[in-house]
Write a sequence for this structure.
């Protein structure tokens, strides 16, 4: 087993960000998925905590509602022994007219190493990365990108199916308004999976021709050859006009009912990023079927976000390895392996 990685000195400025999944490249994705394996092992311990980011502070700036992503990042930071700061747009000085830039700079002036941001406008994470002297993680910006969701989904596919390359993933539902679909397609294409988008024409993005994926308007045509069926909710908060005749018709034409789920190959899995709407994109009883990975995606999300935070803050480029993290002691108070201390 190798010794602790050469991490940054205390107080060192970090300049790496995670803004879009494409920024990682295939190597970066592979590195994070391998780190996630080590953190999954940490999360299975009786005390799921390592001191890898002790002394670092992670702030979550969520300007849009979230349950799982926000809690997942906060849990990940705490399990790495980082200090956490949570910001809620509704109870902040934004309501008194302060700008996004001034609010974000005020938060980071308190000594923040990493900002996890979610915002309804595409491009906010990129903008913050230019303004702030802290690492920025995009936790969802409008319909643009949600890179950690794509990483946790790739991690879940790889754990369940053993591989991603050559797999056929059908992404079904509201692709047009989905940042999850954009990041996931980018990641799957980098990892050489085949993707088919399944949606009515009104829920497909305008420039889908450039995505390098197949397109279908009939879910029944793709079920038999799918290794993964990935369901998306109708994102009404981003829809500017009525795009569907009715929810019932959408369910009948595109929803994964239990009957359709039973037609999948034995090894195939059904995924959903949540929040899900039972009876619309997913049959009411499908979440409890053995083929679904919804709870695993949530659990894997913590390991993957630990990997992302460690990759950004706890290791210099090229030094993070599986052995480094696995070697980190479980209990608080042990030596800070994982940050280059001793
Ligand atoms: C998102 O933040 O985009 C979610 O994870 C998926 C959704 O809201 O439907």
């Amino acid at each position: 087993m190798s010794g602790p990685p050469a991490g940054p000195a205390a107080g060192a400025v970090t300049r790496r960000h995670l803004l879009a999944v494409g920024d990682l490249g295939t190597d970066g994705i592979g590195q994070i998925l391998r780190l996630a394996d080590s953190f999954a092992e940490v999360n299975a311990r009786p005390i799921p905590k390592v001191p890898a980011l002790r002394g670092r502070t992670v702030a979550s700036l969520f300007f849009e509602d979230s349950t799982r992503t926000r809690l997942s990042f906060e849990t990940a930071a705490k399990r790495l022994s980082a200090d956490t700061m949570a910001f809620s747009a509704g109870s902040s000085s934004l309501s008194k007219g302060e700008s996004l830039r001034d609010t974000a700079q005020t938060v980071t002036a308190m000594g923040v190493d990493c900002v996890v941001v979610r915002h309804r406008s595409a491009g906010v994470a990129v903008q913050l990365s230019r303004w702030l002297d802290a690492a920025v993680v995009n936790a969802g910006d409008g319909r643009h990108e949600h890179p950690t969701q794509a990483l946790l989904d790739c991690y879940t596919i790889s754990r369940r199916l053993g591989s991603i390359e050559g797999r056929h993933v059908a992404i079904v539902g509201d692709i047009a308004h989905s940042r999850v679909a954009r990041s996931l397609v980018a990641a799957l294409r980098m990892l050489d999976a085949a993707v088919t988008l399944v949606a009515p024409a009104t829920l497909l993005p305008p420039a889908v021709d450039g995505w390098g994926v197949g397109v279908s308007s009939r879910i029944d045509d793709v079920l038999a050859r799918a290794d993964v069926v990935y369901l998306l909710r109708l994102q009404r908060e981003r829809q500017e006009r009525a795009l569907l005749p009715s929810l019932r018709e959408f369910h009948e034409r595109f929803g994964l009912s239990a009957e359709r789920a039973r037609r999948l190959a034995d090894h195939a899995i059904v995924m959903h990023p949540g929040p899900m709407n039972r009876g619309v994109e997913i049959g009411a009883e499908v979440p409890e079927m053995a083929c679904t990975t919804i709870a695993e995606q949530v659990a894997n999300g913590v390991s993957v976000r630990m990997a992302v935070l460690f990759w950004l803050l706890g290791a210099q480029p090229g030094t993070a390895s599986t052995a480094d993290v696995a070697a980190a002691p479980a209990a608080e108070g042990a030596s800070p392996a994982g940050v280059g201390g001793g």
